Amino acid sequence: MKSITIKGSKRESVGKVATKALRNAGMVPCVIYGGKSPIHFSAEEKAFKSLVYTPNVYTASLDVDGHKIAAILQDIQFHPVSEKILHVDFYQLFDDKEITMNIPVQLEGTSLGVLNGGSLRFTNRKLKVKALPANLPDFVTANISKLKIGNKLFVTSLSNDNYTFMHPDNTVVVQVRTSRNATLIEDEEAETETEEATEEAAAE
């Protein structure tokens, strides 16, 4: 999985006054959990742009006063009016410890059912995956080429040896449902087949 570097500095004080002063200076107070003890630091708000405002998922390489820590974004708080970032929580990653993340699903191919007028329902655009940090994928690929009208693609069809899906086996990722257009196409095909059969019978 791709990583984004964020540089910050340790916070000497974590009180309300110090936190307010940081925010007024365009800085975001942050905490890293998961290690021996929480690490409090601050970073420029603009440093979070590529990590937060994107549909993609990344790990974070946190450079706190020259000390680099691999982590994932755990929680983020926004101001209810201005939507400015108020606080960010990270969780530290360890090479030998599995982590759970929501990974985006990327569709591949063109559904046969959609070509026949069906309606594609993308039920789960992200899936919860558990894996070692080195095995976390940028996205999960779901091939929908063979899906006909009425077919469903379950999470079990996307199984991978490098990670585990944290969902029940009957979880539907994407499905093709019947639409009015599909019904019209099916009726037209049925009429054509009937006409062809009648013509063949008359010829005999």
Question: How would you characterize this protein structure?
Answer:
The chain has two domains: 3-93, Ribosomal Protein L25, Chain P; 100-178, Ribosomal protein L25, C-terminal domain (RNA Polymerase Alpha Subunit, Chain A, domain 2), CATH 2.170.120. It has four helices and 13 strands. The protein has helices at residues 16-24, 49-52, 112-115, 180-203; strands spanning 3-10, 27-33, 39-44, 59-64, 67-78, 85-92, 99-108, 119-122, 126-131, 140-143, 152-154, 164-165, 172-177. It has a six-stranded mixed β-barrel. The chain has a four-stranded mixed β-sheet with strand order 10-7-9-12, with no helix packed on it. The longest helix has 24 residues, at 180-203. The termini are far apart. 22% of the residues are buried.
